[in-house]
Automatic annotation (TrEMBL):
Belongs to the ABC transporter superfamily. It comes from the Bacteria. This is Spermidine/putrescine transport system ATP-binding protein/spermidine/putrescine transport system ATP-binding protein. PANTHER family: SPERMIDINE/PUTRESCINE IMPORT ATP-BINDING PROTEIN POTA (PTHR42781), SPERMIDINE_PUTRESCINE IMPORT ATP-BINDING PROTEIN POTA (PTHR42781:SF4). InterPro entries: AAA+_ATPase, ABC_SmlMolc_Importer, ABC_transporter-like_ATP-bd, ABC_transporter-like_CS, Mo/tungstate-bd_C_term_dom, P-loop_NTPase, Transp-assoc_OB_typ2. Keywords: ATP-binding, Nucleotide-binding, Transport. One of its GO terms (molecular function) is ATP binding. It holds the Pfam family TOBE_2. It comes from Rhizobium paknamense.
Length: 361
């Protein structure tokens, strides 16, 4: 099978000795929307720049449609990159900015104009085609940068935090547009972000990175509900982790000896479990009941630290016996105002299938 993009054991060590990317392996299908997600400095941008050709690859191979790209300069790769600041030419019209890449390639004017017109129409930019970008809004500039990246008809569009400069409302609107555009054009998108909500909303698969290494590659829902590593469990969503030792496996359910007694959760499918493990419980899976209710699975005693109702959402902060806090949200119909007094003893519980047991490290 030939992938649109393949990174095979790719590594990057900067001249100063910094290992920025370590043994990065990824195969991307045509038309996939992939997000690189992780904290600042984890190597997302470096990886993107190696794919674009702006950064050399220290080890491993980078292939596009089965052809090795390591030694090709950026202009000879079938990729386009969109930078966070858009890097538009302020003195050129929108039309010229968009057509510049084709102009540099020496494409005849008639052919160039036809391509530029088509992409300006696709992105709704016809009305501002003759204006200069410095007089336009952030959202419009973002669209011009997209048009400029797409007009060269790349196999792969590389986007480095392209929505980072926009305010929250515009960001949301452009997110939807971007997703629609990507599906319509069928172009492979590789998108760098440190905003998890953006990655979860846009991507087919998310690559979570930490300290130069891939922690997990999964579709958003799976990443959210079935983390593979403690880093992902702490970085994505709102999980509570219970450290413990594996007591045994009952089919798919792992039984864990924790400081709060025996607890059960789904055994992580990607790694063999033994010895030290972590039981990961998403906030959404936790139920609160008054203490004394019997027959609950995975029951943990706690006390209510706060109970607030904002609009139609009840926010509850509970404190475990070991002092850790667990914050939960639910529709006000579920936990009505006044259902739990502050400092009341309660029991937290969850269904084993909603929790995941992963290796401790
Ligand atoms: N030109 C460079 N020379 C030396 N080290 C660099 C260079 N560029 C990046 N680094 C280092 O490489 C590591 C990865 O950086 P990179 O910019 O790829 O991370 P990132 O995940 O994109 O972070 P951010 O979200 O802050 O952009 C960091 O430790 C960074 O300091």
């Amino acid at each position: 099978m030939i992938f649109d993009l393949e990174l095979l054991h790719v590594g990057k060590v900067y001249d100063n000795g910094t290992p920025a990317v370590i043994d990065f392996n990824l195969a991307v299908n045509k038309g996939e929307f992939i997000a690189f997600l992780g904290p600042s400095g984890c190597g997302k941008t470096t990886t993107l720049r190696m794919i674009a050709g702006f950064e050399s690859i220290s080890s491993g191979d980078m292939m596009i449609k089965g052809v090795r790209m390591n030694d090709l300069p950026p202009q000879h790769r079938p990729t386009s990159m969109i930078f966070q600041n858009y890097a538009l030419f302020p003195h050129m019209t929108v039309r010229r900015n968009v057509g510049y890449g084709l102009e540099v390639k020496g494409m005849p004017k008639a052919e160039r104009d036809a391509k530029v017109d088509r992409i300006l129409a696709t992105l709704g930019l016809e009305d501002i085609a003759e204006r200069k970008p410095d007089r336009l809004s952030g959202g419009q500039r973002q669209r011009i940068a997209l048009a400029r990246g797409l007009v060269v008809e790349p196999d792969i569009l590389l986007l480095d935090e392209p929505l980072g400069a926009l305010d929250a409302n515009l960001r949301k609107a452009i997110q939807n547009e971007l997703k629609l555009l990507q599906k319509t054009l069928g172009v492979t998108f590789i998108f760098v972000t440190h905003a998890q909500s953006e990655a979860l909303a846009l991507s087919d698969r998310i690559v979570v990175m930490s300290q130069g290494r891939i922690e997990q590659v999964s579709p958003p829902h799976q990443l959210y509900t079935r983390p593979n590593t403690p880093f992902v469990a702490q970085f994505i969503g709102r999980n509570t982790l219970f450290p413990g030792r594996l007591r045994g496996l009952e089919s798919e359910i792992a039984v864990v000896d924790t400081g709060h007694g025996l607890m059960r959760g789904m055994a992580n499918a990607s790694a063999a479990l033994s010895g030290d493990v972590q039981l990961v419980v998403p906030a959404e899976a936790i139920e609160i009941t008054s203490s004394g209710v019997s027959g609950l699975e995975n029951a943990v005693p706690a006390r209510v630290a706060r109970f607030d109702v904002v609009g139609h959402v009840s926010h509850i902060l509970a404190t475990l016996e070991d002092g850790r806090s667990v914050s939960l949200e639910a529709h006000v119909e579920k936990y009505r105002p006044g259902s739990f007094a502050v400092d009341a003893p309660v029991t937290l519980s969850w269904k084993p299938e909603a929790a995941t047991v992963i290796p401790a490290a």
